[in-house]
Amino acid sequence: MSSALDIAKRALDRGFRLGADLEVYFQEGRTTSIKVYGGEVESVAMSEPRGLGVRAARNGQVGYAFTADLSDGGLDGVLAAAVANVDVTDSDPYASLPPRATVPYPSIAGLWRPGVGRLRLEDKVNLALTVERTALASPKVETVEESAYSDEESRIAICSTTGVEAEAESSFAFVWSQAHAGHDEDRQSGLGYSAARDPQELDAEAAGREAGEKAAALLGARPCATGSYTVVFGREVVAALLSYVAQGLSADAVQKGRSVFAGKLKEAIGSSLVVLADDGLAPEGMATNPFDGEGVPRQRTALLEGGVLQAYLHSTYTARKAGENAASTGNAERPSYRAAPKVAATNLVLTPGSGTLADLAARVGTGLYVESAAGLHSGVNVVSGEISVGVSGQLIENGVLGRPVREVTIATDFLSLLGSVSDLGGDLRWIPIYGSVSTPSVAVQGITVSGL
Fold it and tell me: CA–CA separation, 313 vs 397, rounded Å?
């Protein structure tokens, strides 16, 4: 059976006569998605995506085409289409394919585990049923809106006429549940999840308990008084906000004037406690890979150290556009073979502080703990940096989590948020919901809360 790299090289070999630099990106894999409800299987979806994309470059013009037809005729067709598309694109002095890597690709053990492919479908279904059953067994939980299991194993390869040649494989599994707790007319929800590279490493029972406990903790929630609070953001909320911060740290957004961080390189934009990195090599990160979507070796890129903005995230294109002092940070991403690479974060890693969430709340003394946020897509503006979202959680009273809160809005902006970080917990967790983020809970002073 041909390897991923063999297939990519076979395509590349057929295009050498076409008069353009060529890059072939091949992807194949298997995915499973299972949803259950009321102890029964609601849906099962399985797919095996397989195909390749071709970038062609000549004299500052770049064309792209893709296909799922891997026959000789299909390969010849996609190569010809990519080269033909070169002639209908505008010339750009920074547009060309990356050269061969000058350093070896990193070796990262354990990115692929056999369980995704070997575990029987009925065992995967049982994981989804277990997370639902456990959530339903939690005190005060009345219903579970949805419980699900999903997994993916993927093999990718890239090669080019400029000397790039690499391949890798990875796997990932995820189980989660959304539980609803009730008391009288009050209904609250909570999310629990578990993620791992091998489904046999998932803890479905812990995920179900987490969903139930989070939902029950919000029963009786009502608005708190309007005012300025020290807000402790829970890890999922921090992960969501950091994913938007990372969009603003994309060199593409900066160069297009669509980022609040434009022109602030080497400036202090955050608290001295903030140490944030994009780490494409983190062994536990869901986005870890030896190379990016155009064959550039992954790396760890310091974004903020001591609150100072150290770097933007670059692809080969944005690095060339930035000038001779810039280089790709290995952040060219592809959602699939159907798309050309674009700048995106890999694994965002926020350096933790110390102690549990309870310890952090004790240090804060009085404030608001935010467990979840709603309206992020419309309430966060990467260009202006403004943030205005509805949140729910618990008041922090006398150093402990107190009465539940909902129907309140927080208002701040990226620079104020980063600059007012006053403490961090040591409760680090990998969050797979907003990309791939490793973060603790974070305390931020002076957040405006609109409630009663």
Answer: 40
Token readout for 220 is: 């009786």
- 272: tokens are 């001295």
Q: Are 61 and 94 in contact (CB under 8 A)?
A: no
**Does the pLDDT at position 362 exceed 80?**
yes
DSSP one-letter string for 167-219: EEEEEEEEEEEEEEEEETTEEEEEEEEEEESSGGG--HHHHHHHHHHHHHHTT
Q: Where are the alpha helices (DSSP H) in 276-432?
A: 316-322, 357-364, 376-379, 414-419
Separation between Cα atoms, residue 412 and residue 370, nearest integer Å: 14
Q: How far apart are CA 320 and CA 359, in angstroms?
A: 46
The domains found in the chain, sorted by start residue, are: 4-216 (3.30.2290.10), 220-241+351-450 (no CATH)
Q: What is the pLDDT of residues 407-443, one digit of tens each?
A: 999 999 999 999 999 999 999 999 999 999 999 999 9
* Residue 191 clears pLDDT 70, i.e. is over it: yes
Coil, strand or helix: which one is 424? strand
- Give 267-300 pLDDT, tens digit per residue: 999 999 999 999 999 999 999 999 999 999 999 9
- The HSE-up count of residue 12 (CA atoms within 13 Å, CB side) is 22
**Tens digits of residue pLDDT in 229-281:** 999 999 999 999 999 999 999 999 999 999 999 999 999 999 999 999 999 99
- What are the E-state strand segments in 341-420? 342-343, 348-350, 367-374, 386-397, 400-413
Helix (H) or strand (E) holding 238: helix 235-248
Residues 6+ apart with CB under 8 A from 248: 254, 259, 260, 261, 382, 385, 414
